[in-house]
């Protein structure tokens, strides 16, 4: 209560003085006394510090035409300790190196991982930036290894403070944090299921008790082009949905759709993410210490307009002066 009354001062102190060697677990569990900057600061200290010495970095030489496959080999087969110092990245037959090349690699490999054509993740219908694991990913026998790889890549991007242009859907974020998923949480991931469940819960009791819907405690799942009927509970085929058990039915339906069916991919992603943290057992604490909107900012950034005046104030010119006509034309194009 004291900290809530002094929230602004506390947040400034956290960012200014909190160190990696401190124990922040008690504070991470009280998000209501912190703001985004202080939560991000505390969460980032759960990662190792990126080294400046190139000899301590994990080196990668990637062929652009084999970006995903070669990146997978370099990352998933590396010892986690070898990744804790950071990464040094080069593209084959290209001379450029440094932070800019590493940022480009992070962006390109993340776009490849989350490309729906690779069947690892599903984009939300209402927001194509948001993703959660694809239940059908198991058609690839190596899919779980790729989820471990994905977890490592996202954690490394956060550690290097690189925004990768994707964000997690709430159902994925909550599972990584070890939280329960409710009906309201699936609104973006599956609008049709959300709408259908809402209607079932709001229907007149007499209508639903008449068995007009013909529902039982089962779920139809499409696998390799065929429909498979899965019982949501023992004997589910014989349990008719009525006004007394419809809440249980909706809850079991949601849990099977967004928890049971993707539990292995989520677990392997979490394991890969945990490999990069200083203490591997803290991955749930990392996600619990943040709001989903916090992680959005860290992975995607703001969608607000660029501040041109701030950009101009921090621009360095080579072979040009700020007063040259070409520079004036350039800035005029952005205003």
Automatic annotation (TrEMBL):
Among Gene3D superfamilies, the record links this protein to: Hect, E3 ligase catalytic domain, Hect, E3 ligase catalytic domains
Q: Which UniProt keywords apply?
A: Ligase, Transferase, Ubl conjugation pathway
**One Pfam family linked to the record:** HECT
Gene Ontology cellular-component annotations: cytoplasm
Q: In which pathway does it act?
A: Protein modification; protein ubiquitination
Q: Name one GO biological process term.
A: ubiquitin-dependent protein catabolic process
Fetch the SMART domains from UniProt.
Answer: HECTc
Q: Does the keyword Lipid metabolism apply?
A: no
Catalytic function, reaction form: S-ubiquitinyl-[E2 ubiquitin-conjugating enzyme]-L-cysteine + [acceptor protein]-L-lysine = [E2 ubiquitin-conjugating enzyme]-L-cysteine + N(6)-ubiquitinyl-[acceptor protein]-L-lysine
Q: Please tell me whether the keyword Transferase is annotated for this protein.
A: yes
Which EC numbers characterise this protein's activity in its record? 2.3.2.26
Q: Listed GO molecular functions?
A: ligase activity; ubiquitin protein ligase activity
Q: What residue stretches are annotated with the HECT domain? A: 79-335
Q: Which InterPro entries match?
A: E3_ubiq-protein_ligase (IPR050409), HECT_dom (IPR000569), Hect_E3_ubiquitin_ligase (IPR035983)
Q: What is this protein called?
A: HECT-type E3 ubiquitin transferase
Q: Please tell me the species this chain comes from.
A: Salix purpurea (Purple osier willow)
